[in-house]
Predict the 3D structure of the following.
Amino acid sequence: MQLRYLFILFCLLSSLNSRAHGDLHKRITNVTEEIQKNPDSAKLYFKRGKLYYQHNNYENSLEDFKNAKKLGLQSAEQDFLIAKSNYHLEKYSKSKRLIKRILRKESINVRALKLLADIYFKKGGYKKSALLYEEVIYNSKVTFPEYYLYASQAWRAANTMDCFERSQSILLKGLEKLGDIIVLYDQLISNYIEIKDFNSAIKFQEKVIKMSNRKERAFLRLADIQIHKELFNEAEISITQAEENFKKLPHRIRNAKFMREFYSELQLKKSSLKNRIR
Protein backbone atom coordinates (compact mmCIF):
# COMPACT_ATOMS: atom_id res chain seq x y z
CA MET A 1 0.00 0.00 0.00
CA GLN A 2 2.81 2.43 0.89
CA LEU A 3 4.48 1.70 -2.45
CA ARG A 4 1.22 2.52 -4.15
CA TYR A 5 1.07 5.88 -2.36
CA LEU A 6 4.72 6.56 -3.25
CA PHE A 7 4.01 5.68 -6.87
CA ILE A 8 0.98 7.99 -6.93
CA LEU A 9 3.07 10.77 -5.34
CA PHE A 10 5.86 10.23 -7.88
CA CYS A 11 3.35 10.38 -10.75
CA LEU A 12 1.80 13.53 -9.31
CA LEU A 13 5.19 15.25 -8.95
CA SER A 14 6.21 14.16 -12.46
CA SER A 15 2.92 15.47 -13.80
CA LEU A 16 3.37 18.80 -11.99
CA ASN A 17 6.95 19.08 -13.30
CA SER A 18 5.80 18.29 -16.83
CA ARG A 19 3.02 20.85 -16.57
CA ALA A 20 5.45 23.44 -15.18
CA HIS A 21 7.81 22.98 -18.13
CA GLY A 22 4.86 22.99 -20.53
CA ASP A 23 3.66 26.23 -18.97
CA LEU A 24 7.18 27.69 -19.27
CA HIS A 25 7.29 26.79 -22.96
CA LYS A 26 3.97 28.54 -23.50
CA ARG A 27 5.14 31.62 -21.60
CA ILE A 28 8.40 31.69 -23.61
CA THR A 29 6.36 31.55 -26.83
CA ASN A 30 4.17 34.44 -25.63
CA VAL A 31 7.18 36.61 -24.68
CA THR A 32 8.84 35.79 -28.03
CA GLU A 33 5.77 37.15 -29.80
CA GLU A 34 5.99 40.30 -27.66
CA ILE A 35 9.68 40.70 -28.55
CA GLN A 36 8.85 40.45 -32.25
CA LYS A 37 6.49 43.40 -31.78
CA ASN A 38 8.92 45.30 -29.47
CA PRO A 39 12.47 44.26 -30.51
CA ASP A 40 14.08 47.12 -28.56
CA SER A 41 12.61 46.13 -25.18
CA ALA A 42 15.39 45.16 -22.77
CA LYS A 43 12.80 44.14 -20.18
CA LEU A 44 11.24 41.60 -22.54
CA TYR A 45 14.62 40.01 -23.29
CA PHE A 46 15.32 39.84 -19.55
CA LYS A 47 11.88 38.35 -18.92
CA ARG A 48 12.45 35.65 -21.54
CA GLY A 49 15.99 35.05 -20.30
CA LYS A 50 14.60 34.25 -16.84
CA LEU A 51 12.08 31.87 -18.37
CA TYR A 52 14.80 30.11 -20.35
CA TYR A 53 16.83 29.84 -17.14
CA GLN A 54 13.87 28.25 -15.32
CA HIS A 55 13.54 25.89 -18.30
CA ASN A 56 17.22 24.86 -17.83
CA ASN A 57 18.03 26.30 -21.27
CA TYR A 58 21.14 28.17 -20.16
CA GLU A 59 22.58 28.94 -23.61
CA ASN A 60 19.39 30.75 -24.61
CA SER A 61 19.11 32.49 -21.25
CA LEU A 62 22.64 33.89 -21.66
CA GLU A 63 21.84 35.11 -25.17
CA ASP A 64 18.76 36.97 -23.93
CA PHE A 65 20.58 38.50 -20.95
CA LYS A 66 23.30 39.65 -23.37
CA ASN A 67 20.68 41.35 -25.57
CA ALA A 68 19.04 42.93 -22.51
CA LYS A 69 22.42 44.37 -21.49
CA LYS A 70 23.05 45.72 -24.99
CA LEU A 71 19.70 47.48 -24.79
CA GLY A 72 20.74 49.15 -21.53
CA LEU A 73 19.30 46.94 -18.77
CA GLN A 74 21.58 46.70 -15.72
CA SER A 75 20.46 44.71 -12.68
CA ALA A 76 22.03 42.68 -9.89
CA GLU A 77 19.53 39.87 -10.47
CA GLN A 78 20.50 39.66 -14.13
CA ASP A 79 24.22 39.55 -13.26
CA PHE A 80 23.57 36.74 -10.80
CA LEU A 81 21.54 34.73 -13.32
CA ILE A 82 24.29 35.18 -15.91
CA ALA A 83 26.80 33.83 -13.38
CA LYS A 84 24.46 30.94 -12.53
CA SER A 85 23.89 30.10 -16.19
CA ASN A 86 27.66 30.00 -16.77
CA TYR A 87 28.03 27.77 -13.71
CA HIS A 88 25.47 25.30 -15.04
CA LEU A 89 27.32 25.29 -18.37
CA GLU A 90 30.55 24.52 -16.44
CA LYS A 91 32.09 27.84 -17.46
CA TYR A 92 33.41 28.28 -13.94
CA SER A 93 35.98 31.01 -14.64
CA LYS A 94 33.38 33.29 -16.23
CA SER A 95 30.94 32.59 -13.43
CA LYS A 96 33.59 33.33 -10.77
CA ARG A 97 34.53 36.68 -12.33
CA LEU A 98 30.90 37.80 -12.32
CA ILE A 99 30.28 36.62 -8.77
CA LYS A 100 33.37 38.42 -7.47
CA ARG A 101 32.12 41.57 -9.16
CA ILE A 102 28.78 41.20 -7.37
CA LEU A 103 30.52 40.61 -4.03
CA ARG A 104 32.66 43.75 -4.44
CA LYS A 105 29.41 45.72 -4.41
CA GLU A 106 27.65 43.60 -1.78
CA SER A 107 30.07 41.56 0.32
CA ILE A 108 27.45 39.55 2.22
CA ASN A 109 25.24 38.55 -0.69
CA VAL A 110 24.44 35.03 0.51
CA ARG A 111 23.40 33.68 -2.90
CA ALA A 112 26.64 34.95 -4.44
CA LEU A 113 28.75 33.53 -1.59
CA LYS A 114 27.03 30.16 -1.98
CA LEU A 115 27.65 30.11 -5.74
CA LEU A 116 31.31 31.07 -5.28
CA ALA A 117 31.68 28.27 -2.73
CA ASP A 118 30.12 25.85 -5.24
CA ILE A 119 32.57 26.99 -7.93
CA TYR A 120 35.63 26.55 -5.70
CA PHE A 121 34.42 23.07 -4.74
CA LYS A 122 34.01 22.09 -8.40
CA LYS A 123 37.51 23.41 -9.15
CA GLY A 124 39.10 21.57 -6.20
CA GLY A 125 39.64 24.63 -4.00
CA TYR A 126 38.18 22.83 -1.00
CA LYS A 127 39.47 25.05 1.83
CA LYS A 128 38.28 28.23 0.09
CA SER A 129 34.98 26.51 -0.59
CA ALA A 130 34.57 25.44 3.04
CA LEU A 131 35.31 28.92 4.38
CA LEU A 132 32.77 30.42 1.98
CA TYR A 133 30.10 27.91 3.01
CA GLU A 134 30.78 28.94 6.61
CA GLU A 135 30.25 32.57 5.57
CA VAL A 136 26.94 31.52 4.03
CA ILE A 137 25.93 29.92 7.34
CA TYR A 138 27.00 32.96 9.35
CA ASN A 139 25.20 35.48 7.11
CA SER A 140 22.01 33.54 6.36
CA LYS A 141 18.78 34.66 8.01
CA VAL A 142 17.44 31.12 7.62
CA THR A 143 20.04 28.37 7.82
CA PHE A 144 19.38 25.04 6.13
CA PRO A 145 20.99 21.71 7.16
CA GLU A 146 22.52 21.33 3.70
CA TYR A 147 24.71 24.41 4.27
CA TYR A 148 26.39 22.57 7.16
CA LEU A 149 26.67 19.45 5.01
CA TYR A 150 28.31 21.39 2.16
CA ALA A 151 30.79 23.02 4.54
CA SER A 152 31.58 19.67 6.16
CA GLN A 153 32.06 17.93 2.81
CA ALA A 154 34.37 20.69 1.59
CA TRP A 155 36.52 20.50 4.73
CA ARG A 156 36.60 16.71 4.46
CA ALA A 157 37.65 16.88 0.80
CA ALA A 158 40.67 19.00 1.79
CA ASN A 159 41.98 15.72 3.25
CA THR A 160 44.08 16.77 6.24
CA MET A 161 43.49 15.86 9.89
CA ASP A 162 42.99 19.51 10.80
CA CYS A 163 40.39 19.87 8.06
CA PHE A 164 38.72 16.64 9.18
CA GLU A 165 38.32 18.11 12.66
CA ARG A 166 36.77 21.25 11.16
CA SER A 167 34.49 19.02 9.09
CA GLN A 168 33.18 17.38 12.25
CA SER A 169 33.06 20.65 14.16
CA ILE A 170 30.78 22.35 11.63
CA LEU A 171 28.36 19.40 11.79
CA LEU A 172 28.28 19.62 15.59
CA LYS A 173 27.58 23.36 15.32
CA GLY A 174 24.71 22.56 12.97
CA LEU A 175 23.27 20.09 15.45
CA GLU A 176 23.62 22.63 18.24
CA LYS A 177 21.88 25.35 16.22
CA LEU A 178 19.24 23.36 14.34
CA GLY A 179 18.59 20.50 16.75
CA ASP A 180 18.71 16.78 16.12
CA ILE A 181 18.85 16.62 12.33
CA ILE A 182 19.40 13.01 11.22
CA VAL A 183 21.25 13.90 7.99
CA LEU A 184 23.85 15.81 10.01
CA TYR A 185 24.32 12.85 12.37
CA ASP A 186 24.59 10.52 9.36
CA GLN A 187 27.41 12.58 7.85
CA LEU A 188 29.16 12.86 11.22
CA ILE A 189 29.00 9.08 11.66
CA SER A 190 30.12 8.39 8.07
CA ASN A 191 33.16 10.61 8.59
CA TYR A 192 34.13 8.75 11.78
CA ILE A 193 33.74 5.39 10.03
CA GLU A 194 35.94 6.62 7.18
CA ILE A 195 38.86 7.30 9.55
CA LYS A 196 38.08 4.10 11.53
CA ASP A 197 37.11 5.95 14.71
CA PHE A 198 34.46 3.36 15.45
CA ASN A 199 34.02 4.34 19.11
CA SER A 200 32.84 7.83 18.12
CA ALA A 201 30.69 6.40 15.33
CA ILE A 202 29.01 4.02 17.80
CA LYS A 203 28.42 6.83 20.31
CA PHE A 204 26.60 9.00 17.79
CA GLN A 205 24.74 6.09 16.20
CA GLU A 206 23.35 5.25 19.63
CA LYS A 207 22.07 8.86 19.83
CA VAL A 208 20.38 8.39 16.45
CA ILE A 209 18.66 5.25 17.76
CA LYS A 210 17.31 7.10 20.80
CA MET A 211 15.82 9.91 18.74
CA SER A 212 14.45 7.76 15.90
CA ASN A 213 10.77 6.81 15.79
CA ARG A 214 11.61 3.99 13.40
CA LYS A 215 14.63 2.17 14.77
CA GLU A 216 15.13 -0.90 12.56
CA ARG A 217 17.58 0.74 10.13
CA ALA A 218 19.39 2.60 12.91
CA PHE A 219 20.02 -0.66 14.77
CA LEU A 220 21.25 -2.35 11.60
CA ARG A 221 23.69 0.48 10.95
CA LEU A 222 24.92 0.19 14.54
CA ALA A 223 25.51 -3.50 13.88
CA ASP A 224 27.56 -2.63 10.78
CA ILE A 225 29.80 -0.32 12.81
CA GLN A 226 30.17 -2.91 15.58
CA ILE A 227 31.16 -5.54 12.99
CA HIS A 228 33.86 -3.17 11.67
CA LYS A 229 35.17 -2.95 15.23
CA GLU A 230 34.88 -6.75 15.58
CA LEU A 231 32.36 -6.42 18.41
CA PHE A 232 30.50 -9.43 17.09
CA ASN A 233 28.41 -10.24 20.16
CA GLU A 234 27.24 -6.62 20.42
CA ALA A 235 26.48 -6.64 16.69
CA GLU A 236 24.36 -9.77 17.12
CA ILE A 237 22.30 -7.98 19.78
CA SER A 238 21.86 -4.94 17.50
CA ILE A 239 20.69 -7.15 14.61
CA THR A 240 18.20 -8.84 16.94
CA GLN A 241 16.88 -5.43 17.98
CA ALA A 242 16.65 -4.38 14.33
CA GLU A 243 14.62 -7.50 13.59
CA GLU A 244 12.34 -7.01 16.60
CA ASN A 245 11.64 -3.41 15.56
CA PHE A 246 10.94 -4.55 12.01
CA LYS A 247 8.42 -7.14 13.22
CA LYS A 248 6.53 -4.48 15.23
CA LEU A 249 5.77 -2.56 12.02
CA PRO A 250 2.29 -2.87 10.47
CA HIS A 251 1.99 -5.62 7.87
CA ARG A 252 1.44 -3.16 5.00
CA ILE A 253 4.81 -1.51 5.77
CA ARG A 254 6.68 -4.79 6.29
CA ASN A 255 5.28 -6.04 3.00
CA ALA A 256 6.49 -3.06 0.95
CA LYS A 257 9.20 -3.98 -1.56
CA PHE A 258 11.92 -1.77 -0.07
CA MET A 259 11.18 -3.16 3.41
CA ARG A 260 11.31 -6.76 2.16
CA GLU A 261 14.70 -5.88 0.67
CA PHE A 262 15.76 -4.43 4.04
CA TYR A 263 14.69 -7.64 5.81
CA SER A 264 16.65 -9.76 3.30
CA GLU A 265 19.73 -7.63 3.98
CA LEU A 266 19.19 -8.06 7.72
CA GLN A 267 18.94 -11.86 7.39
CA LEU A 268 22.13 -12.03 5.31
CA LYS A 269 24.03 -10.05 7.93
CA LYS A 270 22.55 -12.17 10.68
CA SER A 271 23.66 -15.38 8.94
CA SER A 272 27.12 -14.00 8.11
CA LEU A 273 27.61 -12.86 11.70
CA LYS A 274 26.67 -16.28 13.11
CA ASN A 275 29.37 -17.87 10.97
CA ARG A 276 31.94 -15.37 12.30
CA ILE A 277 30.96 -15.95 15.92
CA ARG A 278 31.30 -19.71 15.47
